[in-house]
Amino acid sequence: MELTVSAFKVPTDAPESDGTFEWDATTLVVVEADGGLGWTYAPAAAGVLVGELLAPAVDDPDDIPACWAAMLAAVRNAGPWGLAMYAISAVDIALWDRKARRLGVSLAGLLGQRRETVDVYGSGGFCSYSDERLREQLGGWVVQGIPRVKMKVGRGGDERRVAVAREAIGDAELMVDANGAWELANAARMADVFARFDVRWFEEPVSSDDPGDLRRLRGRVPGMAIAAGEYATSPFAFRALLGSVDVLQADVTRCGGITGFMQADALCFAHGTPLSAHCAPALAVHPMAAAQQGRHIEWFHDHVRIESTLFDGALEPVDGALRPDPSRPGHGMTLRRTKADRFRTSPSVL
């Protein structure tokens, strides 16, 4: 089957950083499959993988499980994890979108919709922000009706910054994300600091590659959910985290697309663990509406900007929740080609 691949690099509206990384642009790789549309937030190299390894593996696009298995086999020597799974995610999403559009149903409906709305939480609060910008962004989400917000930590000054955030949002739920910035002892110390400000969510306090330390910290901070999983790209990686986190995170653009996301949900169901969708809110809303263990979606500042700019049909939260539109087949979005073209990158390899 012919797959059309494009890559777009979109600058941030200001320099951004978290506990372990800095960036000034976000790249997305878009895959189109006979009317279906999918994408992943990944380097443009993921598009090369789509063209070289995945397109030849997609035989019958109506048989998505067979295509997913064939794509997984095709990347064996490239490593069936990491960037290869990001590429599979974009194709898988496009195939699911194509199928739902051809059937004339929403993607949530095709997957088996369990709820009409899915809660979101505002996410940003980058370490590079001034206190004024932090206050403005997090407080603004609360004013808009989003009753839970998350900020980045891990580069110093976090006690002051969390105090600023708490003052800005009042009684709303406050969440922090360290992106694996600390070792266990420092993470435990910071958990005590955050507890004084009624922080309810501590994401990746230590590296998600170390489920043992996540589990040890989890036992020390009652009332504060330990969360991780955004980098997991296989059911085996999700399984390794279950039992070490209070909430498992999955990113539909990384974990194998809709197929991989629903596998993560099944694992969460078997382990009695809530599932939260990491980033890509416009794509995450449909599988989350169908998920058995779905809790909420990350309304991530960068991806919200990109999706609302480059795609027609991207949803906006109402009363802190997203509602899939049952009248729009598939995930309901189309690429705004004219607007996207000014961000196009790496045409020579795609």
How does this structure look, described?
With 350 residues, the protein is an alpha/beta fold. The protein has helices at residues 45-54, 64-74, 83-103, 107-111, 131-143, 158-169, 184-195, 211-218, 235-241, 257-271, 281-290, 301-310, 337-341; strands at 4-17, 22-33, 36-41, 118-124, 148-152, 173-177, 199-203, 225-228, 247-250, 275-277, 294-300, 311-312, 321-322, 334-335. It folds into two domains: 4-104 and 335-341, 2-Layer Sandwich (Enolase-like, domain 1), CATH 3.30.390.10; 109-322, Alpha-Beta Barrel (TIM Barrel), CATH 3.20.20. The strands form three sheets. Strands 4-5-6-7-8-9-10-11 form an eight-stranded parallel beta barrel, surrounded by seven helices. A three-stranded antiparallel β-sheet has the order 1-2-3. Helix 3 (83-103) packs across helix 10 (257-271).
Helix content: 25-40%
Order of helices and strands: EEEHHHHEHEHEHEHEHEHEHEHEEEH
The first-level CATH class name of the largest domain: Alpha Beta
Round the Cα radius of gyration to an integer and report it: 19 Å
Q: End-to-end span in angstroms?
A: 17 Å
Secondary-structure content class: alpha/beta
Count the E strands: 14
| CATH homologous superfamily grouping of the largest domain | Enolase-like C-terminal domain
CATH topology of the largest domain: TIM Barrel
Output the strand order for the largest sheet.
Answer: 4-5-6-7-8-9-10-11
Average pLDDT score: 97
Strand content: 15-25%
Outline:
Helix content is 40%, strand content 22%.
